[in-house]
Amino acid sequence: MELLLAVVAGVLYAAGLYLMLRRRLAQLIIGLSLLSNGSNILILSAAGVTRAKPPLITEGHPLEQFADPVPQSLILTAIVIGFGVLAFSLVLAHRVHQSTGSDDIDTIGRDRA
Amino acid sequence: MLLALPILLPLLTAIVLHLLPQRSRLLRLVAFAGSLFVLGTAAFIFVRVQQTGILVLQVGSWPAPFGITLVADLFSALMIVMVSVIGVAVTASSFAGVDPRREALGYHSLIQVVLMGVAGAFLTGDIFNLYVWFEVLLIGSFVLMSLHRTRAQLRAAFTYVGLNLLASAFLLTAIGLLYGQAGTLNLADLARAWPERRTPGLDAALSMLFLTAFGIKAGLFPLFFWLPASYHTPPAAVGALLAGLLTKVGVYAMIRVFTLLFPDPDASVYRVLLVLSAITMVVGLIGALAQRDFRRVLSFNLVGHIGFTTVGLALWSPAALGGSILYVLHHMLVISTLFLVSGLFLRQRRTTDLNALGGLYRSQPAVACLALIPLFSLAGVPPLSGFVAKVGVITPMLVGGQYLLAAVTLCVSLLTVLSMARLWDEAFWKPAPVASSASALHSRLALPILAPIVFLVGLTLALTVFAGPVSTLTMRAAGQLLDRNTYIRAILGEEVPRAAR
Known about the structure:
The complex is a heterodimer of chains A (113) and B (501).
Chain A: H1 2-20, H2 25-46, H3 70-100
Chain B: H1 5-19, H2 24-52, E1 55-58, E2 69-72, H3 74-93, H4 100-104, H5 107-123, H6 127-146, H7 151-182, H8 187-197, H9 200-218, H10 226-230, H11 236-261, H12 268-290, H13 294-315, H14 318-349, H15 360-363, H16 365-379, H17 385-399, H18 403-429, H19 438-442, H20 447-465, H21 467-482, H22 484-492
Antiparallel strand pairs in B: 1-2
C-alpha cells in the first residue's frame, strides 16, 4: 500500500511540475493543484499507512492500536488552504483572460514588460 | 496572552475595518491606530524578552509538543518590533491618499492581514503553523498585488503567485517527510528528536527542500526571478510592505529552521548556501546596474542584499549570524523607506522610469536630501546604518579567513554605492527632462506623504547613533539562536514526555 501511494505521489509531483512549466495559465493552475495533492499523499504515506483503530482513545487499549491522527489533520488543513489558493488563482486567471483575451503567459503584459 | 497580541490585534483591526462604514478617513484612522497598538505590544514583548529571556505561550494550554506554541526569543522580538514599525509607516502613508477603487476593495484590511501573517510566522514555534502563516501572508499579499488590473500588473501577480505556491508545496513536502521520520511538529521537540532519528540521506534531502522553499521566498539566486518581475508594479505603500517584510520572513524562517534542525556546521547545505549567497549578491547588483526604473533598481538591490543576510547562517558563527541579523534589521527599514520614496515620484510624475525623472533637487532640495539618507545608508556609506551592518557582516569573514568571500562582498558593496549614486543622480540631481510639464514640477509634496518617510529615516539615523547597543543585542540574539538547549528547555521544560508516536 505504501509503495502504491509513493508511486502515486511521485506521478502527481512529476505531472504537476511538468504542467507548471507550460505557458498556459490553465495548465499552470492544474499543475499547482496536482502538486498540492501530491504533497498530501506524500504526508499520508510518509507518516505510515497502518491498519488501526480511529484515534478515539478508550481505557484499557494499548496506544499502539490507534492510528496517528496528526497526519490526517495536517492533510485536512493543507486541503483547505490549497482549495482557497486554487479558487483565488482561478479568479485571477479568469480576470487575466477577461482583460487580455489570452491565457498564454508570454502574450500577457507584452505591451509593457 | 501577550505573545498572541501581535497576531490578534491586526486580525481584530481587519474585522473592524470590514464592519465600519466605508468612509476612507475613518478607515485610515482605525488602521493607523491598530498598527500603533501593535507597535506598543511589540515594544513591550521586546522589553520583557530582554529582561526575562525567552517567552513562551502554549496556545489553549495544551502542553508543548502536542499543542501549538508561540515563542519569542530575542531574534523574534526584534523582528516583531521591525514589522510593527513598518506597519505603522505603511498605514500612515495611506493618509496621503489611496486609489479609491483599491480602498473600496479592502485595501486597509488586507494590509492588516499581511501584518498578521508576518507576525505569526515570526512568533510560532511549530513548523506546520509556520507553513500556515506563510499561506496567510501570501494570500493577503496576492490580493494586494492583483487588486489592480493593468496587464503588466496582472502578469506580475501571476508570476508572484505561481512561484510562491511552488515554494509552499516544497515546504509542505519537507514538513511531511520530517513528520514521518521525527513524529513531531514542535520546533523545539524536533530540535531534540531530529538529530537522534535522522538518516544521512533524508537529512540532506530535507535540508535541500527547506533551502529551496525558503530560498524562493527570500529571493536567493537562482530562485529570485519572481521578485524583480513583480515588486515594481503595485503602489508604493504596498511595495514598501512587501519588500520590507516578505523576503525577510523567508530569511527568518531559514535561520530559525536551520539553526534548530541542522546544527552541523559542516553539512553540505551550508557550503551550498554560502556559494548561493555570494552569487545572489553579485547577480542582484549587476542586475540593478542594468535597470532604468527606480523601483526595478530597488528590487534588484533587494535581491542582492538578501545574500548579505543569508551569508551569516552559512558561516555559522555567532559573530557572523549576529552581523546578518543586524543587516536584516537595517535592510528592512531602508528598503521600505526607499519604496515609500518611490511613491513621491509616482505622486509627482506618475512614473518611476529614471528617464522621466530628474530635477527634483532643484524644486525641492529638502526632500532630495531626505531621500539621500536611505539611499546612501543602503549603499553602506559611513557613518550610516548600512555601514555598521556591513562591518558586522564582513568582519567575521575576515576573522574566519574567508578572504575571497570578503572580497566579493566588498566589491558588491562598491557596486551598491555605484547603483545608489546613479539612482540619486538620475532621480534628483540631473535636470528635469523637457517633456515633464512645469505644473507637475512645482506641485508641492504634502506632509502626509512625507511623514512616514521622515519617521523611517529617523529610525535609520537612530540605528546609526545607537549602533553599539543594537549590535550587542543582535550578537546576543545570535548567541541565543545557536544555543539550542536553552530554546528547547524554555519550551519543553526540564522533564517532558517524548511526543508519542
